[in-house]
């Protein structure tokens, strides 16, 4: 059976959806939005002080804490 893994990352009042199949993530998001007061903020570019960079063509996900490092140094 071809199924994909969906990961939901919760922090306070934020949810980050991570998964291989966009259609499955959208379906889950619609179900949650029907039950809870939520708004879709689009693709995440930052979370918990980390910058998120995606390259869908190369199937890469990069996380960077450069901003935090620059502050510390």
Q: Give the strand order of the largest sheet, numbering strands 1, 2, ... along the chain.
A: 3-4-5
Multimeric status of the protein: single chain
What is the molecular shape? Answer: flat
Output mean pLDDT.
Answer: 88
| Helix segment tally | 2
Helix/sheet category: alpha+beta
Helix content: 25-40%
Report the portion of residues in β strands: 25-35%
The end-to-end span amounts to: 50 Å
Q: Which H/E pattern describes the elements? A: EEHEEEH
Tell me about the largest β-sheet: 3 strands, antiparallel
| Strand tally | 5
- Low-confidence spans: pLDDT under 50, at least 5 residues? none
Radius of gyration (Å): 15 Å
Provide structural commentary.
With 73 residues, the protein is α+β, with helices and mostly antiparallel strands. The chain is 29% helix and 34% strand. The strands form two sheets. The protein has a three-stranded antiparallel beta sheet. The protein has a two-stranded antiparallel ribbon with strand order 1-2. Strand 4 and strand 5 (60-64) form a beta hairpin. It is built from two helices and five strands, in the order ββαβββα. It has helices at residues 22-35, 66-72, and strands spanning 6-11, 14-19, 46-47, 50-55, 60-64.
